[in-house]
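Researcher: Good morning. I'm working through a list of sequences from a screen, and I'd like to move beyond sequence-only analysis. For each chain I'm collecting a predicted structure so we can compare shapes side by side. This is the next one on the list. No need for commentary yet; just the structure.
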Amino acid sequence: MAIKDLSPSVLRDFVKSLGWQSLPDGIVDRLYVMHNAAMPRRQIVIPMDQDAPDYAEACELALSKLADLQGMKLADLIQLAAISRDDSIYYRVTSDGAVDDGLPLSFAASLLLGAEQILLASACTVLRPEAHHPRLHRAEATLLASHARFGHTERGSFVVRVSCAVDAMETPSVPDLAHANESFVRMTMLSARNGVRQLVRAIEEDSLSRFVDSQRAAASPVVSSNLCEALTRLHNDDVRNNIDMSFRWATTVALPQDAAAGESIRIRSDYFGRIDDVRRELGAVELDRDDVFIGTVEHLNGEFDIEGNRAGEVVMALLLRGGAIIKARVVLDQEQYARAVAAHLDDRALVRVAGRLRPGRQPRTLTDVTSFILIGPGPG
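Model: Good morning. Structure tokens for this chain:
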């Protein structure tokens, strides 16, 4: 965001969050004159009129001075000012292996999907705390996710930032909401932070069994199976990555005393298997499901035989009855595989497949396929 797009009140509040106070005398001249008792000879001056011809130049001068005092680059300070009214979650990917050449594209996609699912699961926990949410796409949770923005990765590392203005939406009027007068965005972000923090602590203290039992028995559990599933999307078995999860809070809403501003939670690579165990424990009992599913063909992994016929594994995106979309592997014979190829070539094509969906991490496994039928294009 350019300096000219930052309003005077945003800049004033941001500078105040760094320990500066506004002097009332400057208001007469349409200026925010900021004073810091620790630096009595320094002042930061911000024009109050954004449409003034020299507004951008004056603000750049003020922020350049502030950046020097903070020991920061001007560009980094401007970015912090731009999101100073947002609550943000940062996901830093680290690994003992080499990731300088980039991340697998499929993992990058999974990372973003997991970040979105963490928001949805946390919002649902705020609205109605449960150990397992049958569906995540409640209207209020979906609306919050629609207000969230994906931020640029930071230089020199793989960092995903997901931000949402703390006042992006009104707090929903639902009976189970514990703090109806607080920001729904802030409650959702704190729910994500508290859930991950307690989950990681239970793993590190080797008290996971007691923790799972406590969540099952709690009237308002802080961790759901949905949150655990979202966290597993942040890990790639080949990359063997850690995730450093940190938070930056909007300066306009006070934090509770137990929430530290600079807190970071490290989820080590070997924790993700334990987190998936918690997902299974907290989830509704997963059984084999014999059903008919509608889906699309995402990947063709079959092999050719000596006669040039192809059969084997494909990966599908299946739509479940509750509205969720999951990935599943299925092994097809030659005739079924030919239909899968036709469906894969037409990005509007849908397939109806009957079989047994096995529980577990995605991609799940679909076995005992009794039919695999191309049913034509989906919505255009």
